[in-house]
Amino acid sequence: MKILSIVWFKVLPAKFGGQKGIANFNQHLSRLHSLVCICSADNEPGADTTYKVLPVLPSGKKQLLLPSAWRKIKQVAVEEKATHIILEHPYHGMAAVKAAKATGAKLIVHSHNIESERFRQIGNRWWRLLALYEKWVHHKADLSLFKTEEDKQFAITHFGLAEDKCMIIPFGIEKPLKDNAAAALIRERHSIPANHTILLFAGTLDYHPNAEAVTSIYRQLAPTLSAKQFPCSIIICGRNKESSFQYLKSYHHPNVIMAAEVDDIEHYFAAADVFINPVRSGGGIQTKNLDALAFDLNVVCFDHLLQGIPASLCGNKLFTTTEGNWDEFTNCIIAASQRSTTTPSAFFDYFNWETITKKAADRIAQL
User: Fold this and answer.
1) 178 pLDDT band (50/70/90 cuts)?
2) What is the Cα–Cα distance from 198 to 237, expressed in whole angstroms?
């Protein structure tokens, strides 16, 4: 079996949830079968990358409309003698379908969320057109992989997919090593008082749902927590490179620390007492919640943000409320700060990368 993975955006080195989801999936899958990844030119594979990386596609969204990029995908599929093609996200669907036809390869669409639904929720006017295209791509696939049961059922209902051509492949995690020195490091770095509970929010900030969450932290959560006399420091970590999101830098509150993009995000997760996720829109699994649980953090979020995360695996580490109920959200933060438990081993078993990729490889081999 020779797998060609098509990745249109930068995932290497993997720093954020979506990048890690693809990079780690390919890394573990390549230990079971030969895998080549064709991707955008801004990818930078590391010395530990266990598969062949071909960063030959143009960088940026414009590549999706370039016939030269479509031809390159087909060319690589033929040259590498691909028997199976995994399309990460539906956007290069046209090229993937042509490449599969040229090689006789089986086509697998790896859906990380329902992209058209995500577009609709964030107010993108192209969502209807994307829905038609997304449906077409999935119908051309021999197998569709989804991250959550909700996404799978949506595709069956709205795209008309057959259930036997759908499969749930969770987002995997790796259990981090304990870092007892992290809290002292982060407190010293940001001059955080000893009596302050450290609350963390991390995500790609130049993405509308996360930017909206940052606004809510400054305008809703920080003032309400202050009014309730809860001593805390809220740290916000994440990339913000897009000009349209620079307004976030104008926000100020004495208890909020805008750390921006950091090279040692693991230290921040290890140092935090509670992970807060006030995201209100967007679809799919919230990988930031998984990262937090992996670090034994209690998670506070709105109840609709737990897609793909079985509560039965998380013990009593999830604190949720209805969307937009900020007063109750802050009550949940205070309650979460007063409970200290470890994440159950069943959580790590379910989200284990080796288990996940073995299951996917076995199903792909049956096509």
Assistant:
1) confident
2) 13
